[in-house]
Amino acid sequence: MFVARSALTGRAVEIQTEAGRLASVRETALDPGELWVAPGLIDLQVNGFGGVDYNDPEAPGAEIARSIEEVRSSGVARLLPTVITGSQERMLGAARNLARARRELREGASIAGVHVEGPFLSPEDGPRGAHPREYVRAPDREEFLRLQEAAEGNIRILTLAPEWPGSTGLIEFVAGQGVVVSLGHTAASAEQIREAIRAGATMSTHLGNGCHNLLPRHPNYIWDQLAADELTAGLIVDGIHNPPAFVKCVVRAKGIDSAFLVTDASSPANCRPGRYRLGEVEVELTAENRVQVAGTARLAGSALRMDRGLENLMRFADLSLAEALRMATVTPARAAGLGGRTGFLEAGDAADLVLFRFDPEGPRFQVERTLVA
């Protein structure tokens, strides 16, 4: 049992847990002091963290465990390690390694599944982002099944570009397997996006990124996804990938129940500036906290922590603490189909909690402890 101030109501609550679940959450007259509580944050797109590349098939279990502890220090209880475009051998190896980590590591309880971002993406410069052109390829059901087998059935999200011939059939198949299909790194037309939605796509991967530098005023694939009520949109809120005005517009258009915070963190996150690896690509963390393909200005994931992203979300979109937290907890849980995480401090939910101190003037979100189950 412990007492803290609920991030939903601002009032003191007494929380009891049992067998990894919230047994009860009751208001209390006890003094919580400066301690606040919210559901543990959820990050649906993490390529790496703390110098560890989740795309490395040889990443040692001990290093993955350490990186997850660093992710937890930002308030994240559950994450989807993300496998990006690479050779078939490397992607299968990374999926196997992450499945092993989830199964064998104590910290593996935080791995809620795997997000596969690629290889069925646009080959065009701009939409392709930092994904290596030589490994981008057409949708292939058998390759997806091999990846799912390697991941021990843990793939929860597949990001693809729906303009490929055959993408509609793959979307129908993958969605029918209970995997979320997300549109991203795409140059799709409005009709191709609508066809993907009809086939079962329900998400947009880091909306506003993985795009051409210049787009038609309208129509374009950002507007088309923004206007689609069926698509829940991820947002990288680091002030680098998207300017504050864009974040605010997306949140206003989608609402807090159809937009969610992601970091898209890669291996340099929480590290010093320098050279690192992201899959098959050498990347560089600059002094300005940009992660980019080494020797270029092309972004390659981020160095964002979820706690800093939460603060940015409040500032950029004029959100309350409770509203921003919903976009980092309940909304991504529902979008990815994570059971037991669709309530906000409700009895019966998974006992994933973040205890923190909060200064609304910053705003400043200071994590004290993250609890998993």
Describe the structure.
Helices cover 27% and strands 25% of the residues. It has 373 residues and is of the alpha/beta class. The chain has one domain: Metal-dependent hydrolases (TIM Barrel, Alpha-Beta Barrel), CATH 3.20.20. A hairpin with a 2-residue loop joins β6 and β7. α7 packs across α8 (306-317).
Secondary structure blueprint with pairings:
Blueprint lengths: L1 E5 L5 E7 L2 E7 L8 E4 L1 E6 L1 E2 L2 E2 L7 H12 L3 E9 L3 H17 L9 E4 L23 H10 L4 E6 L6 H10 L3 E4 L6 H10 L3 E2 L16 H7 L4 E5 L7 H11 L4 E4 L11 E5 L2 E5 L5 E3 L12 H12 L3 H6 L3 H7 L16 E7 L4 E8 L2
Parallel strand pairs: 1-4, 5-8, 8-9, 9-10, 10-11, 11-12, 12-13, 13-14
Antiparallel strand pairs: 1-2, 2-3, 4-18, 6-7, 15-16, 16-17, 18-19
What would the keywords be for this entry?
single chain, 373 residues, alpha/beta, TIM Barrel, 8-stranded parallel sheet, globular
Summarize the structure.
The protein has one domain (40-341): TIM Barrel, CATH 3.20.20.140. The protein contains ten helices and 19 strands. It has helices spanning 61-72, 88-104, 141-150, 167-176, 190-199, 221-227, 244-254, 306-317, 321-326, 330-336, and strands spanning 2-6, 12-18, 21-27, 36-39, 41-46, 48-49, 52-53, 76-84, 114-117, 155-160, 180-183, 203-204, 232-236, 259-262, 274-278, 281-285, 291-293, 353-359, 364-371.
CATH superfamily: Metal-dependent hydrolases
- CATH-assigned fold name: TIM Barrel
Mean pLDDT: 97
- Distance separating the two termini: 14 Å
Compute the CA-based radius of gyration.
Answer: 20 Å
Global structural class: alpha/beta
Number of helices: 10
Ranges where pLDDT stays below 50 over 5 or more residues in a row are none
